[in-house]
């Protein structure tokens, strides 16, 4: 009977947690709606445009902090905060390198978080090693494909190594995301790569994509949402495990 009661209690707690989490996400969805309704990318660069673009990510920062505390500043919350800084920089085309630097540091903090004990993974299977190999071959192949186009840019001497370093960090982040064995984290990292790939292919005139801004921002916000939710769920599971251990002791 005690086991059944505990199981029923856990189910109620799970439902309540999901309801609270959904309510906490309402500001994120509201700010995304405002961004797409105003369609800031077609506006002149301004502090208002930067704030509206970064608002959904700042909502995710507050969500992660509310569940994980200040420790997540050296992790997913910190990565989201740097991403918001990158969003603001990219409003102004001349700050592209600065924005890319912010996102590179964000991937570094994500990677640090995915290596933490909360995400400790069991030994990888052959299928995961194949996934790692695919990620690295894809990253190397895309960089090699982009280099000739980067060399046509006036800032080629800066862009070629900078893009190479950025791609290295995002592939490392995606590899460590796969290592966590958490679907939301893995999907978030892959969608993030897809968003960045769209930026690279269109910005450096590899080819044009219809509705590119819609694709870039939709995939970007979706990727950040999945990474944030994956981190929150990992924290909730860690807390639940601690409670169960305390009850058994």
UniProtKB/TrEMBL annotation:
Pfam families: YhhN (PF07947). It comes from the Eukaryota. It is an enzyme of class 3 (hydrolase). Keywords: Membrane, Transmembrane, Transmembrane helix. It is found in: Membrane. Its EC number is 3.3.2.2. It is a multi-pass membrane protein. It catalyses: a 1-O-(1Z-alkenyl)-sn-glycero-3-phosphoethanolamine + H2O = a 2,3-saturated aldehyde + sn-glycero-3-phosphoethanolamine; a 1-O-(1Z-alkenyl)-sn-glycero-3-phosphocholine + H2O = a 2,3-saturated aldehyde + sn-glycerol 3-phosphocholine. The chain crosses the membrane at residues 20-40, 46-65, 72-92, 98-116, 128-146, 158-177, 184-202. GO terms for cellular component: membrane. One of its GO terms (molecular function) is alkenylglycerophosphocholine hydrolase activity. Belongs to the TMEM86 family. This is lysoplasmalogenase. It comes from Cyprinus carpio (Common carp).
